[in-house]
UniProtKB/TrEMBL annotation, chain A:
Residues 227-391 form the DUF4032 domain. InterPro entries: DUF4032, Kinase-like_dom_sf. Keywords: Kinase, Transferase. GO terms for molecular function: kinase activity. Pfam families: DUF4032, Kdo. This is Lipopolysaccharide kinase (Kdo/WaaP) family protein.
Automatic annotation (TrEMBL), chain B:
It holds the Pfam family ABC_tran. The keyword Endoplasmic reticulum does not apply. GO terms for biological process: carbohydrate transport. This is Multiple sugar transport system ATP-binding protein. Residues 4-235 form the ABC transporter domain. The keyword Magnesium does not apply. GO terms for cellular component: ATP-binding cassette (ABC) transporter complex, substrate-binding subunit-containing. It comes from the Bacteria. Residues 400-421 are annotated as: Disordered. Coiled coil: none annotated.
């Protein structure tokens, strides 16, 4: 048997004692972690926990495993939203298929959860848009997915929105640039699969009655085309307009959740022609800033929210002390005095239902809501108490992230 | 259903390299066409141009009489089979087949008719009310085929569908696909790198090399009348043996002794210098087991056997031979091009499984010389190909197919109104 993994992968060594030589279906259930059904897979998939982290194991033909391993590694380097791969095990005895090991995406939700809970805070429309953003991002990077479906996508709450991640790269093909035909075909496949998956939920009486599978599926191609056009279209305008038109376009691209990589402006007889190369990586400006100040790793929208809170805390500190406070000092104090007291206040039985940064965001939202009702600022402490007693317990227990279930990371670090 | 015509199709990528170079190919309505060749030959690119995934640099792609170069994949109404074989657990087998129609809002009575027709062809009728979890591996694959059938596509396309299946399921699926295609009589294009799949499935096989068509013919014609060294070496397992030869009158001098050519073949090679003679493994036999009455159609020679392989129903002997450097280099290049480890300067000969020929000893072999071909080592051209005999083999295959398609269309229009009522 052979194990292939890329350092750093300290966790990999903890997995080496598993019975890799046995078919995955025959593994002792005591070694496995039960994770609620995530979607439909053609392969045998199991979950294990080691040293506080959770891994997904998939049995798959060796050439496909090698391909998927390489691709997921590339995606990680380029900052594409995809699950992170740990490694593969090949040359298993008796001509068995290879095993691909990926890191479980903590705090993620499957479509089953999102579409079947009637009081989900995320609208179907928002889910669809999140998926379309993922598809456009992949297509910009020259990735033909070939199997874009809800089963192969995981959703993670990110402040008020969601971020979608690619889970399965088995059918992916990579090109320097995708042809229009490949993009359209990918969208057609996505439309059909999303429709079928929702119909399946409907047959299983798991679909919220206000969702119509066919309407949802049919909306996907149009939304995709609109977003693709918005981030890739070339524009021609008069030269005297160019200043505000460029700024307007860039702001619009940011609004859509993308970053501009390079802007090319060509002066032609018809006017100025603007071509924007949209970056494929997830936007990360706020993430990097928050990490620098606090060492926290969270998602982009969460980071924006946390940074806002940090900045207002710094202003308050300066006002109280009557002198300037360096931002790094403010960062440390905000962590110790604001952020950690909130995320550490979660009682054990409610731990793991929301990522700490998401919980913090929810508490801030709750504070805003209570303050508006009361007509005055109720403060974070009161908001936290109210949130923990009335709101958090309403989130279903099956949302608890596996790492917390596995007893590893208590109030697991954001990653 | 429709015919597919390709006229002077070229595909060039950014670097100007032609991945597909001037391919013209007509696929008849109802025909099962295989695109085969080693990696990099352009077969997948060609399929993708049919589907609409790759832009066509120049040439015309015509499906059912309509030029489709600028049509989106969806508007070409083709079905990539097995591309989606996810089975949905809460839906019955019936709904698992029907859902593409549900998504296109097809009226219920039409859905019912199409699903039941497909289920008949696939012999899934008794399983329609079951949940897919209870199906066998083969039945699951048939549900995927059912989805393709109910779409009523112009053609089925397969892109190496069996390459990731285990050997047993692969064999099973090969049979299923062949049977289904014959029953439905639907135009089918199937890409594979596996010559066994190509030979067993196709009505005609298109052999590609570096983006160009080498030969389009029935499996039998490819096997018996290959146009060149490449096709001869690619088709057949174990592969054709190539021996160096010089010509004297109507006689070829080879490491396995002289080979007498008939008048037609002798004329074709007259005046040539160094040649390659191509002999299939089964043209050989253990001389002691050959009927005296038959011996005169071949020649007998003695050679030292390196290794024998006994497989129960058949047996192979490996006989090394000497070859000039020029020929060694040529054969090595050919091997590399065919992604093959074989074709070294040793002959693989098939002998009767009862033969007692031993490893490491001299043995007497007989060689049937009637069907050997002679190739130009430089150009690779088959100098002794009998084009007429080859065309006759393909003509016979085409007739067989036409008969089957006629039967299939007769069978399928049979009214299922009892089921739909």
């Amino acid at each position: 048997m052979r194990f292939l993994f890329r350092p750093p992968a300290d966790e990999a060594t903890a997995l080496l004692t598993l019975p890799w030589e046995q078919p995955l279906e025959e593994w002792d259930p005591d070694l496995l972690l039960h994770v609620p059904q995530r979607g439909i897979s053609r392969h045998v998939v199991r979950f294990v926990a080691a040293e506080g982290s959770v891994f997904a194991l998939k049995e798959i033909a060796e050439p496909l495993a090698r391909k998927e391993y390489a691709l997921l590694g590339e995606f990680a380097e380029e900052g594409l939203p995809a699950v992170s791969v740990l490694g593969i095990c090949v040359d298993r005895p008796g001509g068995q298929e290879a095993l691909l090991v990926t890191r479980y995406l903590e705090y993620s939700m499957s479509y089953r959860h999102l579409f079947s809970s009637p009081r989900s805070q995320h609208s179907t429309s928002q889910l669809l848009d999140t998926m379309v953003v993922l598809l456009v991002r992949l297509h910009l990077a020259g990735v033909f997915w070939g199997d874009c479906s809800l089963s192969n996508t995981l959703f993670r709450p990110d402040a008020d929105g969601l971020t979608a991640y690619l889970v399965d790269a088995e059918t992916v093909e990579r090109r320097p640039v995708l042809s229009a035909g490949m993009r359209r075909h990918d969208v057609d496949l996505a439309r059909e699969r999303v429709g079928a998956e929702l119909l399946d939920l409907q047959f299983g009486e798991l679909l919220s009655p206000d969702v119509d599978p066919i309407t949802v599926a049919d909306a996907l191609p149009g939304r995709y085309e609109a977003l693709w056009d918005a981030v890739t279209r070339e524009e021609v305008f008069r030269r005297d307009e160019q200043r505000y038109r460029v700024a307007e376009r860039l702001a619009w691209i940011n609004e859509l959740g993308f970053d501009a990589g390079e802007v090319e402006l060509v002066h032609t007889p018809e006017g100025a022609r603007l071509r924007v190369q949209t970056r494929v990586a997830e936007p990360g400006q706020h993430r990097r800033e928050l990490f620098r100040l606090t060492g926290l790793e969270v998602q982009e929208n969460q980071a924006r929210r946390l940074l806002n809170d940090l900045r207002s805390y710094r202003a308050w500190l300066e006002q109280e002390g009557g002198r300037p406070v360096p931002e790094t000092v403010a960062g440390h104090r905000w962590m110790a005095e604001v952020y950690l007291p909130v995320v550490q206040a979660v009682p054990r039985h409610l731990a793991g239902r929301l990522a700490p940064a998401q919980l913090f965001h929810e508490v801030l939202e709750h504070r805003w809501f209570l303050s508006e009702q009361a007509g005055r600022d109720v403060g974070t402490t009161a908001a936290l108490e109210s949130y923990l007693s009335s709101e958090l317990p309403r989130l279903p227990a099956d949302m608890t992230t596996p790492a917390v279930l596995a007893g590893g990371a208590d109030g697991a670090p954001d990653r | 259903m429709a015919s597919i015509e390709m006229k002077n199709i070229v595909k060039k990528y950014g670097d100007g390299f032609p991945a597909v170079n001037d391919v013209s190919l007509d696929i008849a309505d109802g025909e099962f066409m295989i695109l085969v060749g080693p990696s990099g030959c352009g077969k997948s690119t060609l399929l993708r141009m049919i589907v609409g995934l790759e832009d066509i640099t120049s040439g015309d792609m015509v499906i059912g009489g309509t030029r489709v170069n600028d049509k989106a994949p969806r508007d070409r109404n083709l079905s990539m089979v097995f591309q989606n074989y996810a089975l949905y657990p809460h839906m019955s087998v019936y709904e698992n087949i029907a859902f593409p129609l549900r998504l296109s809002k097809t009226p219920d009575d039409q859905v019912d008719r199409l699903v039941k027709e497909a289920a008949d062809v696939l012999e899934l009728h008794e399983h329609l009310d079951r949940k897919p979890a209870n199906l066998s591996g083969g039945q699951r694959q048939r549900v995927a085929m059912g989805r393709a059938i109910v779409r009523q596509a112009e053609a089925f396309l397969f892109d190496e569908p069996l390459s990731n299946l285990d050997a047993k399921l692969r064999g099973q699926m090969r049979t299923e696909i062949a049977r289904l295609q014959r029953r439905l009589g639907i135009t089918t294009v199937y890409v594979t790198h596996d010559q066994t799949e190509a030979m067993t499935l196709g009505d005609r096989v298109c052999v590609l090399r570096k983006g160009s068509i080498q030969q389009v013919a029935s499996p039998r014609e490819l096997y018996e009348q290959p146009v060149n060294l490449f096709v001869a070496g690619f088709i057949g397992s174990p592969p054709m043996n190539f021996l160096p030869a010089t010509v004297q009158g109507s006689t070829l001098q080879t490491p396995f002794g002289p080979i007498e050519l008939d008048e037609r073949r002798a004329a074709a090679v007259a005046g040539r210098d160094l040649l390659l003679v191509g002999i299939r493994p089964e043209y050989f036999e253990d001389a002691s087991l050959v009927d005296e009455a038959k011996k005169h159609v071949g020649t007998t020679f003695t050679a030292k056997v390196d290794v024998t392989e006994w497989l129960g129903d058949q047996q192979y002997a490996y006989i090394p031979y000497e070859a000039p450097d020029q020929i060694r280099t040529r054969l090595r290049d050919l091997s590399k091009e065919l992604d093959s480890e074989e074709l070294r300067t040793q002959a693989i000969v098939s002998i009767d499984s009862t033969s007692r020929i031993r490893e490491g000893r001299e043995a007497e072999f007989w060689l049937d010389t009637r069907k050997v071909h002679v190739f130009d080592p430089e150009t690779g051209e088959n100098l002794t190909r009998d084009a007429e005999a080859g065309a006759e083999l393909t003509r016979m295959a085409v007739e067989d197919r036409e008969e089957q398609v006629a039967e299939a269309s007769g069978g399928l229009t049979g009214d299922r109104s009892s089921g739909a009522a």
